[in-house]
């Protein structure tokens, strides 16, 4: 070991010695000796791979090359070549160190191992820790820059860049903290590393890795939620909007019924790894990226809220959203919001062209949605109507045609009413003829000698009153049956001697006739409703009665014999 720095042969001899006696030496002891003599990880890799002590080799790599990237590169090489069962716990253990010192290589290594079973959720605390370090470093630099701007006589640092990076890193407080993402997955933000060496700031490594695992099929809500939080911090909205466009359901997926029911419909229609509620809250709290918030509103089916937000950031987008609505009432409500917003903006800015803005809204939505009278309340009290003269004339013409249509309908209704009145007058004097020996259709009794009122129907059937009640009452509802009983009780109380009593009696009798004799029970709807009821004199009933009689007779004979 002492001669290896001055002789290449010594290096080869050391390598051969380690390779031959790999099973005769204690791997941990040998690795401690090698690391104490500053042997590089490349020289230790063959021995570590042969001995199978991957953990010791990785620790040696990270310890020997703490101030440079060589150790991390060698450690990642060992992890990539080692069996996944041995390398997996080491990935989780050293993920923060790997990201801090070689983020790009570490991200590629993590992503390549995803298909083998490397869990992104277990790597998430290290990724969050790395992003927090980036944010703390950026904040520290801003504070230093601000302090430098306030004190122009501050001395310039004379230390090299690498040492300055390390000192800045050591001065940052990275105490442990906990956070919750997505479906309530709790993650632990690990405390600061004891010996992190140089810090490499890569603003894209986290997003690239999370995007990669999502493309490979990761369905963890925590991964989706943290990626959303990273997108929100970006100045450019395009990555966030593109991601939401790929993972947020189209507005058509939110049915009208579920949209009216509120946000509860999202459990079934919008179920997925992306927590839309969390994404919407995060974006709105940032105060920017409103196009993405509008996309989420549409994913929820909340078109009205989407239009309200679009009116603040992009009125043209609000018009597109309103035009895409399929319900006429909703379209009218949304276009009224747009017209009111256009008028209020013109009034607030003292724009004399308020009328033209409102007219443009009318032209965009079409006459079937809004007319001039719908937007007149939004116009200022004093405005020239030259620009809306045509719209007013069209509205008056439309009103004139509607009035003519209403008059035509009224005339038709009057003619129908006159026809009904003539028919009622004719029916009052209508006479029905029947034979002198007519019999009840149900009881076959002569109606003239039965001694009770009877009804003659246009179908030719004659039915006694008591029999008619018996047949019709089961087909009436409870309210009608109760009313028939009340009328019968009132009819019994009247003697019919006085004139006003006779008038009352006639009214009650007319109401009773309307309830029980509204139609012929043998040719009307009652017969249709009772089509599945067997006749009392049918062969099935006779057969059933005979069986019952025979059965009872046999039972009696058996009892007598006993």
What is this structure, in a nutshell?
The chain has 562 residues and is mainly alpha-helical. The protein is 64% helix and 3% strand. The chain contains 27 helices and 4 strands.
Keywords:
562 residues; mainly alpha; two-stranded antiparallel ribbon; disordered C terminus
How does this structure look, described?
With 562 residues, this protein is mostly helical. It has 27 helices and four strands. The radius of gyration is 46 Å and the shape is elongated. The protein starts with 7 loop residues before the first helix and ends with a helix.
Write the layout of secondary structure elements.
Blueprint: H1 8-20, H2 27-36, H3 41-51, H4 54-64, H5 70-81, H6 84-101, H7 103-112, H8 120-150, H9 161-170, E1 177-181, E2 185-189, H10 205-215, H11 221-233, H12 238-247, H13 256-261, H14 266-269, H15 276-286, H16 290-300, H17 303-313, H18 315-323, H19 328-348, H20 354-365, H21 372-375, H22 389-428, E3 454-456, E4 462-464, H23 465-472, H24 478-493, H25 499-516, H26 525-529, H27 539-561
Antiparallel strand pairs: 1-2, 3-4
């Amino acid at each position: 070991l002492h001669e290896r720095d001055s002789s290449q042969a010594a290096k080869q001899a050391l390598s051969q010695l380690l390779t031959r006696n790999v099973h005769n030496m204690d791997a941990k002891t040998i690795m401690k000796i090698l690391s104490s003599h500053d042997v590089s990880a490349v020289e230790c890799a063959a021995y570590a791979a042969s001995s199978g002590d991957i953990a010791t080799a990785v620790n040696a790599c990270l310890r020997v090359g703490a101030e440079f990237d060589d150790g991390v590169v060698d450690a990642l090489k060992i992890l990539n070549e080692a069996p996944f069962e041995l390398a997996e716990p080491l990935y989780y253990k050293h993920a923060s160190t790997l990201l801090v010192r070689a983020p790009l290589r570490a991200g590629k290594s993590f992503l390549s191992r995803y298909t083998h079973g490397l869990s992104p959720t277990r790597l998430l605390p290290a990724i969050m820790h790395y992003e927090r370090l980036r944010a703390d470093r950026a904040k520290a630099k801003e504070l230093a820059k601000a302090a430098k701007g306030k004190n122009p006589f501050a001395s310039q640092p004379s230390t090299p860049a690498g040492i300055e990076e390390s000192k800045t890193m050591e001065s940052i407080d990275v105490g442990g903290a906990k956070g919750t993402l997505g479906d309530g997955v709790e993650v632990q933000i690990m405390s600061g590393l004891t010996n992190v060496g140089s810090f490499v700031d890569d603003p894209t490594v986290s997003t690239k890795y999370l995007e990669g695992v999502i493309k490979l099929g990761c369905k963890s809500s925590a991964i989706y939620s943290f990626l959303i939080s990273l997108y929100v911090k970006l100045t450019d909205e395009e990555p966030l909007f593109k991601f939401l466009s790929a993972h947020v359901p189209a507005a058509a997926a939110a049915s009208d019924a579920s949209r009216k029911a509120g946000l509860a419909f999202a459990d079934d229609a919008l179920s997925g790894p992306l927590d839309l509620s969390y994404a919407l809250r995060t974006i709105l709290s940032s105060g920017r990226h409103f196009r993405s918030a509008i996309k989420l509103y549409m994913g929820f089916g909340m078109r009205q809220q989407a239009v309200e937000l679009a009116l603040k950031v992009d009125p043209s987008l609000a018009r597109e959203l309103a035009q895409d609505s399929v319900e006429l009432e909703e379209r009218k409500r949304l276009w009224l919001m747009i017209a009111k917003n256009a008028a209020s903006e013109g009034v607030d800015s003292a724009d004399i062209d308020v009328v033209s803005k409102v007219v443009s809204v009318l032209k965009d939505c079409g006459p079937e949605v809004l007319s001039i009278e719908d937007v007149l309340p939004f116009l200022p009290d004093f405005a020239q109507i030259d620009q809306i003269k045509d719209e007013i004339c069209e509205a008056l013409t439309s009103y004139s045609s509607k009035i003519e249509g209403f008059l035509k309908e009224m005339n038709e209704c009057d003619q129908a009413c006159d026809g009904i009145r003539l028919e009622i007058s004719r029916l009052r004097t209508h006479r029905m003829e029947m034979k002198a020996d007519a019999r009840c259709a149900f009881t076959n009794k002569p109606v003239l000698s039965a001694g009770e009122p009877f009804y003659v129907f246009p179908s030719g059937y004659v039915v006694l009153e008591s029999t008619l009640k018996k047949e019709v009452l089961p087909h009436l509802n409870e309210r009608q049956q109760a009313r028939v009983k009340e009328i019968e009780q009132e009819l019994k109380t009247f003697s019919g001697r006085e004139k006003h009593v006779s008038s009352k009696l006639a009214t009650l009798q007319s109401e009773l006739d309307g309830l029980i004799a509204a139609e012929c029970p043998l040719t009307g709807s009652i017969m249709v409703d009772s089509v599945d009821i067997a006749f009392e004199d049918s062969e099935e009933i006779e057969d059933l009665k005979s069986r019952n009689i025979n059965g009872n007779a046999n039972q009696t004979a058996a009892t007598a014999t006993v």
